[in-house]
Amino acid sequence: MRDLNPVAPSPKASRSAILGWLLFDWACQPFFTLVTTFVFAPYFASALAPDPVTGQSLWGYATAAAGLVLAVLSPVLGSIADATGPKKPWIASCGLVLFIASFGLWYAAPGRPSGIAVALVGFAFGTVAVEVAAVFNNAMIPHLVPPERYGRLSGTGWAMGYLGGLVSLVIVLGFLAADPVSMKTVFGLDPLFGLDPASREGDRITGPFSALWFLVFVLPLFLFTPDVPRSGMRLKEAARKGLEQVRSTVADARRHESVGRFLVANMIYQDALVALFAFGGIYGAGVFGWQAIELGIFGILLTITGTLGALVGGRLDDRIGAKPVILGAILILAVVCLGVLSLGRDHVLFTIPTAPPAPDDGLYGSAPEKLFVGLGLVIGAVAGPLQASSRSLLARLVPAHEAGRYFGLLALSGKVTSFLAPLAVAVATAVFHTQAAGPAVLILFLVAGFWLLSGVKRV
Length: 459
Hints:
The chain is mainly α. Helices cover 73% and strands 1% of the residues. The longest helix has 33 residues, at 52-84. The chain crosses the membrane at residues 21-46, 58-78, 90-109, 115-136, 157-178, 205-224, 262-283, 295-313, 325-344, 371-394, 406-430, 436-456.
């Protein structure tokens, strides 16, 4: 078995180059924060779909479809990018798709016959584009910093992403998206640009807003961050070599126990994490009847804990290793899912009844809502370290000049069954006619991922 991580010169990029790379996460995050989780997805389930249960199922099917496409594209394109060298052209191509798909969400209006289809297609295409772009951005890590700083760079990147999501969420909820009842934003203002709360234009503007945000903040990556040198290989030849490398990469991973077992574990726990974020806002809207203000403040609080968690997690990664950080995060997420499962509109811990909120109780007035918010903050705190340590662990295990194909394989392992957890949630929700079926399914995925990763020897 050959060594997967031969000794290579330690790179040292300039501060502007590092900042450009970090801003990629900042540029992408509004799509995840505004569209996937806290604003557009709950709008889809509560106002566009016939009912919240149907909305959660349809959103799950769209997430599953995007996962299937990613499973095919990520490792192949990563290998092709390795063969040709530069990563920026691929990021630019994916960015164009992301821009168009996100902008199209504006046309998913209530009452429009094609509204549901437009929302699901735009979301699915945008998800594929942003995730594939992340493969190429991740593959640049070994060319920017030495291995002993992978954890800090990766964690800081996730923190930048969370911070970008926080800023974008405050802007949207404070100035653009208004409650359809009060007709005011979270800051008590009339929406800017005359956005109509009745037709949910403030929710739909998250698509174009995310597109423009990405266009502006991805520019420093192209201006200041050095790309991988060009190999001189033509695209057709690179495509053929890329397909061959996918096969050899899978074979290498199977022979290398630590890489292979990690990738299988990553496949399972990332699947659960994707579903957890995809349905978090939908769950709050459907179970507790949250509207834009409740969901928005919940998202702001969760994003703050996510930023702090990513920063702390990156430093823990460099100090104690990636594996303990990942295992701890998975265990905490499983406990959180159990806690969410125990909640209902009028009870906590499965059977303990609670009083309904009084009119003067303010936001999150009932005990179940308060507990749900607390559990959500924990999710935010551990999700960043889980994802950041996953990519830093792989960066330590593989050679820098082949990082693209291995990060493509990481994306494959994170996406090859990424349709499975959302699909399981969608089917379970439809079969049992309850949104509580979602967290029950995700607990099983997290437990399986924990068991597999615990057997990884090399960290």
